[in-house]
């Protein structure tokens, strides 16, 4: 039977841990002694997702792998919840624990306002390594609209430059169908960004957008068409691929968060800029350790 919750009531959070609720959670998750002193066991079936969490789906393969680990080692790091049993940090662990058959899991209880819950959910989502550029833009818009934060404040919260935040948010000026295609990983940041210069030329934008979807033209080709002021339907179309190749492309795109193409013995991974390249290399474990 789960014991009574020991609430971790933070007062004067800004003075103790910094401006963001992310700082608070970071202290607990990185300080095992503090976490262990405040953890309690809770019924896993009583826990609910953060209502402000924008991420609604989790990869089954990743959850099953984590569940297998939990069966052997248990949950090493407590999840963090509020006094309504809503998960602040650790939804993947909670889902995997259910798969592993656990009835109770360790948790640390924080008393947070709804504004803090929303802020953490959005910022946690932004810090995902597989986050798409358009998802990042939507998250910044949420921080701006819902929490009334200026771009400078958003940049401080998420550890990015103001110019980066401003450039990413410009993607929201694209037509909704382009944004949707980016969310579905049918269009990359490199392909979409040039379209911002022709948002007022609906006919040209629609023509080029159609070619991107049908022919997977490169960002450079998009830029050249915009310079010429016309779409070139003569671009070579992609040869139909085996289902197994398409499956692997889609799997890699979901993992890397960018366009991936496997064709004629060549693997192509798209990236929009140096920052995006470093992100991909980090996922692949190819960054320098020192």
Automatic annotation (TrEMBL):
GO terms for biological process: chromosome segregation. One of its GO terms (cellular component) is chromosome. Keywords: Chromosome partition, DNA-binding. InterPro entries: Chromosome_partition/occlusion, HTH_ParB/Spo0J, ParB/RepB/Spo0J, ParB/Sulfiredoxin_sf, ParB_dimer_C, ParB_N. Residues 40-126 form the ParB-like N-terminal domain. GO terms for molecular function: DNA binding. Belongs to the ParB family. This is Chromosome partitioning protein ParB. It comes from Spiroplasma monobiae MQ-1.
